Amino acid sequence: MLPTIAQGRKVIWDGITKDGRKVLDAWPEQLVSKRRNDEMKLELVNGSVWQVVGSDNYNSLVGSNPVGVVFSEYSLADPAAWDFIRPILAENGGWALFPYTPRGKNHGYSLYEMAKDNPEWHCSRLTVDDTKAIPLSVVQSERDAGMSEEMIQQEFYCSFEAPLFGSYYANQMMKAEKDGRIGIVPYDEHAKVETWWDLGIGDATAIWFVQRIGQEIHLIDYYENSGESLHHYVKVMADKPYIYGDDVLPHDAMQRELQSGKSRVDALKALGRRPEVLKASKIEDGIEAVRAMLSKCWFDKAKCARGIEALRQYRKEASPEHLWRAKNEPEYRDRPVHDWASHGADAFRVGAMHKPVDKDWGGSLKYENRGIV
Question: Which among 13, 38, 37 has a CA at the least distance from the CA of 27?
Answer without folding.
Answer: 13
